[in-house]
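Morning. Coffee machine broken again, so started the prediction first thing and wrote up yesterday's gels while waiting. Chain of 401 residues, entered below exactly as on the submission form.
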Amino acid sequence: MALSRRHFLASGLAAAAAPAFGAQPSRNIGEVRIDVDTATVPVRVSGATPDLQALALTAFRAHGRYRLVSSGQAFDLKFSAAGANQVRVEITRGSAGTLVHAETVAGSTPRQALLKAADVAVVKTNGLGLRGFFTARLAFVSRRAGRGEIYTSDLFLGEARQITRDNAHVLSPRWSPDGSRVIYTSYFRSNAPDVFVSNVSSGARETLISFRGTNSGARFSPSGQQIAVVMTGEGSSEIYVTNAQGRQPSRKTRSDAVKSSPCWSPDGSQLVFAMEPGPQLYQMPAAGGSPRRLALNLGTYAAEPDWSRTDRNKIACTVRVGRQYQIGVFDLAKGAGKVASKASFDGVEPTWLADGRHLVYTARDRTSSVLCVLDTETGNSTRLGTPDSAALQACVWTPGI
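Came back before lunch.
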C-alpha cells in the first residue's frame, strides 16, 4: 500500500497507533529545537520562586515573537505569587524600568494563574495585536498508561489527567466548544470504530455515534449544536452532519472517494475535509453542496485540516514534501499555501492556538512522537513537555475562543 494512502486512512480511521514515516534517518526528537532568525522582542523574564521562573521561561521560549535575554531587554517581565492561586505580573520598559503595566490574575491553580499572567504580558508587549495562547488546554493521545488513552493537560503538558480508560484503540480527540467534553473515535465496543464523548470532569463516557459501518473523525460545530463525522454505512466513506446528540444524520457528500477529517469554519457555515485522490483538501457549505478543491499547490498530499478560529483565512494541514510530512498553511484570502514547518522529522496533525500564528503539532520519527509548538511565521518549533512526554493527536481548546 502506498505511503500516502496508509497515512490518509490513519487520519480518518485506524492506523494512528502505527504511523507511516518518510525514509529518513532516525533521530531523537526530544532534543531538537529548530530556530530560524526573525524579528523578535527581547525580554528578560524572572519569577519570584523557582517554579514561577521555570514555567515563565518555558512559556516564552515557545513563543516565536519573543527572545529571552539577560540584558538589553525591551521589557522586563516579573512574576510573583500574590495569594492562593494568584500571580502578579509587572511589566517595565527597557533599562530605565518605566512601569508599563501591573496586574494580579487568578487561576484554578498556581500554574494556571502564572500562564494567565504570562498571556497578559504577551498582550501588552507583542506589538502585533496577538492574543495570548499560554492558557490553552490540550486533549491528546498518550500511551503513558500502556495502551493509548486520551488525556487533558495545560499547553505544556502540566497537570495532565487521564479521561478515558477504554483499553482499546482511541484516536482523534476533539473538544466541545465549552471545554466540558471531548469527542473521540474508539474501538471500545467492536472491531469497527464508533464515536464516543467523555466528560472532562467526571470521565463519564457516552456512546454518541454508532451507526452501521464505521463512524470516525467527529467534530463539534462552533455552536456545539451539530457534529461533522465520517460514516461508511451506505458503502463509501461520506461526510455527515448530525445533531449534538449524534442523531438525525444528514449526508453531505456523494462519491466513492475516501474522505477524512471534516473540520468546521469558525462561523459554522463551511466544512473543509480531505478527499482522495491525493488526498487533497476540499471546502463545501455545511448545509450541503458541491465540494471545491483548495489549490494549496504544495504537492499531491494534503490532509488533517484545522481551520483557525482567530484568523478565519487560515487552514493548517499536513502536507508531504519529498519523503517527509510537514505542516502546511493555506491562506483563503490569498488563495495560496505555504510549508510552515522546517523539520527534519515528520510533522503532522496540526491544531491552531489562539493567536492564529502558532499551532501545536505532532513531531514523529521512527521510534517516538512528541508534541511541539510551531510558529508558522518563522518556522521555529519547540517541543512541549519533557523528553519522555510521548503524545500525539492533540487538539487545542482555549477559554473564550
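The chain has two domains: 3-31+136-397, 39-61+66-125. Going to sketch it on the whiteboard this afternoon.
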